[in-house]
Amino acid sequence: MDDVITLAHGAGGTVMGKLIKETILPSFFLRRALEGIGLDDLDDGASLKLRDHEIVVSLDSHTVSPLFFPGGDIGRLALAGTVNDVAVMGAKPIAVLDAVIVEEGFPISDLKRVLSSMNRAASEVPVAIIGG
Could you tell me if 13 and 19 are in contact, meaning their C-beta atoms sit under 8 angstroms apart? Predict the structure, then answer.
């Protein structure tokens, strides 16, 4: 029987480290670009060196249930996670991309709540949401 992903694979511990080193890293040949920080560095994001600047990029994703919980929701969590990853690498967050995945049958009203929450969180930083 094939191994399966568990919550431990996303918890940041030994199980996640093993998954990254044994499954994810060997799956990709090009893991760094423009002499920046790359996949092998196992940092919170990556970087691209362009002339006299280094641009830090990150992508984050989350699954939570319920989507709306005391003190937050998936929209705020998604925005804050990406901004935090860039900030802990020592860069100033200025823009983010959104990755919104919704399943068929998801209420448009809930999608609007999530997007509104992302927008409020972005305004607090402030960062622009420039695509996704």
Answer: no
Write down the pTM of the prediction: 0.86
- How much is the average pLDDT of 94-116? 94
Q: Which amino acid is at 27?
A: S
- Where do the domains of the chain lie, and which CATH numbers do they carry? 1-30 (no CATH), 32-131 (3.30.1330.10)
- Rounded to an integer, the average pLDDT of 35-58 is 96
Please provide the DSSP assignment of 52-93 as one string. Answer: TEEEEE-------SSSEETTEEHHHHHHHHHHHHHHHTT---
Given a contact cutoff of 8 angstroms between Cβ atoms, the answer to whether 63 and 6 are in contact is no
